[in-house]
Amino acid sequence: MTMERVAIVGGGPGGLMLARLLQLRGCLPTVFERDAHAGERPQGGSLDLHGETGQRAIRLAGLAAEFAAAARPEDQGDRLYDVDGSLLYDRDGQGDDRPEIDRTALRQILLESLAPGTVRWGSLVREIAPDAEGWTVAGDGFRARFDRVVGADGGWSRVRPLLSTAVPEYEGVTLVELGFDTERHPAVDALTGSGKMFAVGDNRALITQRNGHGHIRGYAGVRISEALAQDWRKLPPAQVRAALRQAFAGWAPSLTQVIDSGEIIAVRALHALPIGHRWDSRPGLTLLGDAAHLMSPFSGEGVNLALADAVDLADALGSGGWPAVSEFESVMAARGETAAEGAAQGLAGAFSSKGAAPVLEHYLERTLDPGA
To answer: Where is the FAD-binding domain positioned along the sequence (predicted)?
Structure first.
């Protein structure tokens, strides 16, 4: 491709994958990342990479060996419990092709694949404006011109308002994120099984998911108002735990130990962009990943979509013409719309008055059709 100046705003998996693919084509992109360094913030839990999207991107990036060394194909199992602690479903996931990898490990693989200096750490972008030569990207202590700007900066993107008036909307569910290590929490370790565990009741759910290095990430989810979710974010951990104990009163102690023993990491209100989000293409400026199609994590597609977006956008930018990028935006929107519909259905099934029944139905369908 021609040596265009490409700015990528955001150093998550999608932005870093795009940078890697562009570098393989001879381009030297710049990634602007607000964090001061790679370890400044927790990167979240485990990700499952799908063969036709996430894993394909890894292969095209020439990182299959690095991914295989860090991935955990043994952690693809599913368990489902009722509120009384009855095990309704248990599948070990052996033979599936959606291996897990810690988000931190995936990010590190991508970072190590980039040329030195590609990522500008501690660079919060505050201004993006068109000029006679393309686009100016500026923040505290930096200002530079680029031919193309890609917003890969997540659901609360600073780039998206230049293309769309859409904003993420609260989905009615808030997750309290919890952390465990298997050595100190053997009961949670046993409860989780060989992958992830769901316990589902009336508009509430407890979730645990196996991570690497002896860690487990947990989530206590409830349907509450956005105002209450905002209040919870301001509470000290002890008060958040007390609110959860009240919300899950009457559940089996084997399940509520997740609330009682986990280290509270964060309160996360779930938001999503409107399903089918699109915008009028604007030469020189585009989006990928959550900046384009934020959805709840209940489809398991988020990072896979971001990595697939990176592959398609690298191809489009490599064509040298903006019509190819406009076509990419259309393809990305259609793909995102299908996934967002699935995410909305998954969230509605996990948090409903029907308890575990919708989730059990979903698991049984997947047993019959593992690709579903």
So the answer is: 5-318
